[in-house]
Every structure is written in structure tokens, then in C-alpha cells.
Amino acid sequence: MLKEFKEFALRGNVMDLAVGVIIGAAFGTIVNSVVNDLIMPLVGIVFKADFSNLYIPLSEKVIAAKAAEPQLSLAKAKELGPVFAWGNFLTVAINFMILAFIIFLMVKGMNAIKRKDATTTPAPPPTPPADVILLTEIRDLLKSKA
């Protein structure tokens, strides 16, 4: 059983998948940083707001706390009651769009490389079966005698 597991785990597909998952996780943290540390601050400057703290209070307790303290953070508001955290959702949606676009570009590049390889190395013509070769030789012999 251990031998079978070792064969399964060391098969090329499993190792490729493991590498892909690890690189994907690391890539996700880079995209998170780009969105949270570079893009959202620029959006915040344009709209004069920190999008991660934008929310709509859904309970009287949160509404009263927001009236008393207009800069009430999302974390404190969540402690007081339910909120509609649309700013956080917007940040996550932008994060997803950037990640999806980058993956699209990577797949598009790989497809272009595959197409280039397919056009540069044409497949050799298949060799005909032995009976077809024999019949061709017989035909050629008959033509030469006639």
C-alpha cells in the first residue's frame, strides 16, 4: 500500500498540481498586496474614502454608534451588530478581476506558444501499413512490365 501511494504521489500530474497550488497561493498574496496596498489607496484618493471601511449599518445600535462617532471602523461596527460591508466586497471584487485578468493573460500566452510550436514542427506523414506497401510494389511492377 505504501508503494502504491509513493507511485501515485510521485507521478508527474500530482507533482505538477502541487507546484501549481503552491505558486497559486503565493501569487494570490501578491495580487492581494497590489490591490490593497497600491490600487485601493489610489481609488481612495480619487473618491476621498477608505473603501475597506465603507459599510451600511443594518441595526439601530450600529446607526447610533455611527452617529456618535462618524469615523466608526468596520471592525467596531461589526462588533456592535450587522453591517453591509460593501467597501470590503468592492476590494475583493477588484482583487478577483485583477487575478482573473492575469490568469487570462498567462493562458493566452501559453496558447500562443503552443500554436507557434504546432506550426513550426509539422507531424511526419504516417507510414502506410505493410499490405499497402506490398500492393504499391505490385502495382509498380505491373506498370513496368506493361
Largest sheet: 2 strands, antiparallel
CATH architectural designation: Orthogonal Bundle
Helix percentage: over 70%
Instruction: Kindly state the number of beta strands.
Output: 2
What's the structural domain tally? 1
Sheet with most strands: strand arrangement: 1-2
Give the low-confidence spans: none
Order of helices and strands: HHEHHEHH
CATH class: Mainly Alpha
C-alpha termini separation: 70 Å
Total of helices: 6
Can you tell me the CATH superfamily? Large-conductance mechanosensitive channel, MscL, domain 1
Q: Which range does the strand content fall in?
A: under 5%
Query: What would the principal axes of the Cα set say about the shape?
Result: elongated
User: What number is the mean pLDDT?
Assistant: 84
What is the gyration radius calculated from CA atoms?
32 Å
Map the helices and strands.
Layout: H1 2-9, H2 12-47, E1 56-57, H3 60-68, H4 74-80, E2 83-84, H5 86-120, H6 130-145
Antiparallel strand pairs: 1-2
Helix pairs in contact: 2-5
Function: Channel that opens in response to stretch forces in the membrane lipid bilayer. May participate in the regulation of osmotic pressure changes within the cell.
Family: Belongs to the MscL family.
Transmembrane segments: 12-31, 83-107
Describe the model.
It holds the Pfam family MscL. The chain has 146 residues and is mostly helical. It has a single domain (2-122), classed as Large-conductance mechanosensitive channel, MscL, domain 1 (Non-ribosomal Peptide Synthetase Peptidyl Carrier Protein, Chain A, Orthogonal Bundle), CATH 1.10.1200.120. The chain is built from 6 helices and 2 strands, in the order ααβααβαα. The chain has helices at residues 2-9, 12-47, 60-68, 74-80, 86-120, 130-145; strands spanning 56-57, 83-84. The protein has a two-stranded antiparallel sheet. Helix 2 packs across helix 5 (86-120). The longest helix is centred in the N-terminal third of the chain and has 36 residues, at 12-47. The radius of gyration is 32 Å and the shape is elongated.
